[in-house]
Amino acid sequence: MLGPSISATAKLVETDRCSGVGIDFTRLPSLSRILIDADDTAHVLLQSGRRCLTVLVSGTSVLEGPVGTTFLVEGLDGVLQAPRLMRMANVLLRANTSSADREPRQSQEYQRLRNALIALDGYHANASQREIAGVLFGKDLAEAAWRKGDLSFKQRARRAIQLGRRLSAGDYRRLLR
Fold it and tell me: Rounded to whole angstroms, how far apart are CA atoms 21 and 64?
């Protein structure tokens, strides 16, 4: 296992009754791999940048489609670790929507270029780095980071703006080769 892990149970979601509810692990942009062990526990490895989390899912197979997921906390250590792990899980799962309106998984390079173009639009519209980070990474997540003094989102927004400006200054030609 890489990085921290959290346990969960899953049960199949009836899509017509609970539209948009549940996690379709197979369609998450952060999905790195799914390993099923001999006990039918799915080891779902989620990665985004340097963030990495393994979700150990028992119950209904995550390969069957969207599943209602209950995260489990065991013991005092689990309670103490839960806030950090759930924040990480939220970041890695936040792009999840119902499987009906999901697009195919996109590469990290695609995401980086997409973010650069969105940041460039914001830059030209005189949006602040904070506003641009809110659009790129989610308003709640960016606001919380700014309040805590977490510079990672500010730096990521700044890098996206810089890449967008380089692309608009002619660096886009490199992509066409």
Answer: 15
β-partners of residue 70 are 9
Q: Is 138 helix (H, G, I), strand (E, B) or coil?
A: coil
One domain, residues 96 and 144: no
Same domain, 83 and 146: no
Do 90 and 127 belong to one domain? no
- Give dist(CA 91, CA 68) in Å, integer: 18
Q: How, if at all, do strands 5-12 and 51-59 pair?
A: parallel
pLDDT, tens digit, 9 for 90 and up, residues 18-52: 455 788 888 888 888 898 888 889 999 998 877 88
Q: 31-36 and 67-72 as β-strands: parallel, antiparallel, unpaired?
A: unpaired
pTM: 0.50
